[in-house]
Write a structure and sequence with these properties.
The protein is mainly β. The chain is built from 1 helix and 10 strands, in the order αββββββββββ.
Length: 174
């Protein structure tokens, strides 16, 4: 019984401290850098795509996929081609937002094949793309491009000037 009373008292004390800490956040435990991290452009991809293939209504909305047919990419110390065979799987939600989940591969000019997973959202605006942000993740072989596996990225998507392609910009979060 004595241990039970202590546990109840300790739990109550922790809960009170947590509530106090939330009210006093940043004052009790100063944080040296509270500014948002910056970004740095690391690569731009020009991705060619085929027309969307409708899958249809599903449990959470309308599903479709957009085949990835090729393209090129370039950045600081990295460049190459987008390999055909990937796709951007999308879920059209009732609120008009499209959840995107693209999986594809890129091949560097020196022969390294890197898998890319790119998840995010696209909101419509005036018949086009409004807000389009993604979180690209790379699966690169050990070696020269291993830094891609150890870095957090954000991306943007925009239609290319020519139809049948999109431009993806990938930024390293500093």
């Amino acid at each position: 019984m004595r241990h039970f009373k202590f546990a109840v008292l300790a739990t109550a004390t922790l809960l009170a401290a947590a509530a106090f800490a939330q009210d006093d956040a940043g004052k009790r435990w100063p944080v040296p850098d509270v500014t948002a991290p910056g970004t740095e452009l690391v690569m731009e991809l020009y991705v060619t795509i085929a027309p969307a293939v409708g899958v249809g209504p599903s449990d959470h909305g309308i599903r479709r996929f957009i085949p990835i047919t090729g393209g090129r990419f370039a950045g600081a110390g990295i460049k190459g081609e987008i390999l055909a065979g990937g796709a951007d799987w999308q879920l059209g939600r009732a609120d008009g937002v499209a959840e995107v989940n693209a999986v594809y591969s890129i091949k560097t000019d020196d022969g390294a094949v890197i898998e890319v997973e790119n998840q995010g959202i696209i909101t419509p605006a005036n018949g086009g793309i409004g807000y389009a942000r993604t979180n690209p993740r790379f699966h690169a072989p050990t070696g020269r491009y291993d830094w891609l596996n150890k870095t957090f990225f954000v991306g943007t998507i925009a239609p290319a000037a020519e139809s049948g392609a999109v431009v993806i910009r990938i930024f390293k979060v500093l």
